[in-house]
Specification:
The protein is an all-alpha fold and about 180 residues long. The chain contains ten helices and no strands. It starts with 10 loop residues before the first helix and ends in a 19-residue tail after the last helix. About 25% of the residues are buried. The structure holds heme C.
Length: about 180
């Protein structure tokens, strides 16, 4: 496991510039939650995904560890590389220019806020097995995800959750990390 990423662009910055932000920016209160594989890949596609990597993504199936070695030495930082590697394990081969399936962050925002505040989720530092255990608990077993999505969500949260409470926007701290 890697230590939690330094908050260069997340809540710390958001808090610093909050007063000067437009309403649209303020409404994205979830910007502190790190990007998932879909967004990382879309961003990279826009910025110029290297051709050989695009070809691998389009044609190959591989483990996250193998994708990780291919992403080493590219422009991605280690957190984005680790997150994207899990996404590619779940979905490659896939067309990086196509309509990409939802990633762990998408699922967290779509599926994990209806019964409790998302803070309950993103502040937990857990192993993949523990996240799968949470997903299989009686409170969560009914959540509509495929096996692939369940595993991807566990891998995404292992890498990207465990966010320190002082990096959570104040309005999402109300009542603490409670239900
Ligand atoms: C259908 C309602 C519901 C949804 C949707 C839901 N939760 Fe929960 N969650 C609960 C309830 C109820 C509790 C408190 C009881 C418990 O711990 O099972 C809880 C507690 C938790 C906890 C803290 C307790 C524990 O199990 O460690 C975590 C972490 C958690 N949820 C993660 C998630 C994630 C991840 C998602 C999205 C995939 C999610 N929840 C979506 C109902 C829900």
């Amino acid at each position: 496991m890697i230590p939690y990423r330094p908050a260069l662009t997340g809540a710390a910055l958001a808090a610093a510039v909050w007063g000067g932000m437009t309403l649209a920016q303020q409404s994205d209160v979830f910007s502190f939650i790190p990007d998932g594989g879909r967004t990382i890949l879309e961003r990279w596609q826009d910025d110029g995904l290297p051709g050989d990597l695009a070809k691998s993504i389009r044609t190959e199936e591989a483990t996250a560890a193998t994708w990780r070695t291919r992403l080493d030495g590219t422009d991605l930082d280690q957190w984005d590389a680790a997150t994207l590697a899990e996404y590619l394990e779940a979905y490659a081969p896939l067309d990086p220019e196509g309509d990409l399936p939802r990633d762990g962050r998408d699922m967290t925002l779509d599926l994990c806020q209806s019964c409790h505040i998302v803070t309950v989720v993103v502040t937990q530092d857990r192993s993949p097995e523990a996240w799968l255990g949470t997903m299989n608990s009686p409170s969560h077993i009914e959540i509509d995800v495929t096996e692939t999505e369940r595993q991807l969500l566990a891998d995404y949260l292992t890498l990207n959750a465990g966010i320190p409470i002082d990096q959570i926007p104040p309005e999402l701290r109300a009542g603490g990390a409670s239900y």
